[in-house]
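Mods, move this if it's the wrong board.
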Amino acid sequence: MILEVDGVHKAFASPAGAIEVLRGVDLRVAGGETVAIVGESGSGKSTLLSLLAGLDVPTRGSVRLDGADLGALSEAELARFRARRIGIVFQQFHLMSGLTALENVSLPLELQGAPDAEARAREVLEQVGLTQRAQHLPSRLSGGECQRVAIARALVVEPALLLADEPSGSLDAATGAAVDRLLFELVERRGATLVLVTHSDRLAAACNRCLKLVDGALEG
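Not the wrong board. Structure tokens:
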């Protein structure tokens, strides 16, 4: 089991008191599995994804990836662990505007001190069909191309776990469908584990499992 979530609660402070968004979430995800998490807007899907990514910590409960308890790691340890084991694809791309497509993809490897960062980045850009756009800044790329760069950046470190938050939510239907197909093809090719948040029934149906977040807990 690559991902183990046990009794996770998450509350946020407000002037009216604590607001509990997640209430006892339990989840098991096996290596190579694809899992969709759906739910109403404001149900806590993105909050859960942030906890799985180690970008936030639970109020109670634990998140374990490959046996490592993310909540027990120091900030520095967590940053190193996340850089090597977790890839994240955001809805709004989050590319570095001043870096080319190639530089955006190679950046995670360079931060790790990988000597072959550029060569590996070029290889993944080729896999997403952007060899000819490697030297272009994000401002010169279409939305679909930017998301393909974001997918390449997330996968270049060969993560054990890939997390995606509405990966095609900001794209038109045709471009979004193409990006979704590419995402699943690359995940399957690399044997990665995928957990994604989506409002798309089509995208959810493409996963091995679909779970619904209701009243702060997962069903399905």
